[in-house]
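#struct-help
A.M.: can someone run this one for me? Single chain, 484 residues.
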Amino acid sequence: MLLLAPLALTGCSQPSTLQEIRNEGVLHVITRVAPSIYYEGREGPTGYDYELAKLFAEELGVELRLRVAEDNTEILSVLSRDFAHIGLAGLSTQPLFENRYTAVPTGIAAQSIVVYNRDVDRPETLADLAGQTLHLVPDSNHEHQLEALTGEASNIFWQVHPGLDAAGILARVETGELPYAVVSSNELDLNHVFFPQVKQGFALGDAKELAWLFPASQDDSLVGAAKTFLKKVHADGTIAQLSERFYGHLDHLNYVGARTFMHHVKNRLPSYESLFRDYATTFNMDWRLLAAMGYQESHWRPNAVSPTGVRGLMMLTRNTANYIGINNRLDAEESIQGGAKYFRMVHKRVPKRIAEPDRTWFALASYNVGFGHLEDARRLTKGAGKNPDRWLDVKEFLPLLAQKEWYKKTRYGYARGHEPVLYVQNIRRYYDVLARLMEPTEDIAPKDSSLVELGQPPENEQAEEGADMRAGLSPELGMIPPTL
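D.P.: on it. Structure tokens below:
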């Protein structure tokens, strides 16, 4: 990839950096691939920093032009030569940045975390690592912290691994090739489920906000615009919304849960993958989301049965199955078909003005607790002056439906409102893993559009059908999967 010409020139006769950007109509940004920063999702480029940078470019009224670097070393080199306006590197402010880069915090804080393979002794302090080697990615937040801490413990060594990212480091800790390493806490959160043999030891220091980096050779016009923009999106809730979108679903699966899920992906999912793909295509949804729902419901067990009669791979109630025309809930194909069909019904009922991915989170909550209870929670959210069309806000009010002082004010009354919050969180986490492991179906246009134009459950369905209805108060709707 050709290097850009230097992007900013100094001197009183030259326009400011911000004016140059507006004159060209382009904001040049350099980044690297990481789930915490930028990656190619199903709908195109995404990631916390990418989405924030895209909003900043829109605020400036210019095009966001992205260059993807191999690693942070390349990002810092490009910025040093003034070949990009902003670097998205997932780094916090460091002493070595002085006179080289200007750092502007973006709202996500992270710590440097010592991790280890579960087959070695757990370190609780640096002193426990005397004589050991810690393994790091290059140009990270970790090396300068270790240098600052060497006085606290002698005989501590570390090795930098050019060519590896955080996931590569964790993969080698997983196998035991590297017994100890240091990674950023946010990257550990996003990757931990893939590496169940990796355990968390201790933090090297306090959490610090990650920052966008600007070449120090620029004038302060772009930095000032970025600070103003970030202050604005903090105040209007955009930062909180992005944080919830990319980090709010992380449930920190424990060792047993992570190993169990990965085992089932390998040994159970292949038996049903084609069915998930086929019926997801029929009902115009991502098959990996449908599979994640199935795992949350039954751990992909077609003969799963709860004490109250909810049963099958998608754990359909009798009334729900009858309503959507499913005869045998213990038949895997019928169950998956029924789950996809019912999800599309509730998804269609969520107001179209609610943007994705929130509309899907609302649909999942409705699938679990019922549309009426979801609407009750949305009304409580609005009454509190928050946004009833944002999952970030509504998920705070759903648990209140279990408290008399709140549910007595609602139309549909009591609900175990904490369950849909956990339900959505878990499915998002399972989907996150499947989306990184499995390819999507290329064409998700419905095979038969008549199957998608479904009716809606009756408005009073939840109140009429009680605890044995998917849309009602049943606690067995996948929140606590049946014992394996």
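A.M.: thanks! DSSP finds 20 helices and twelve strands in the chain.
D.P.: also worth noting: Confidence is low (pLDDT under 50) at residues 1-5, 443-484.
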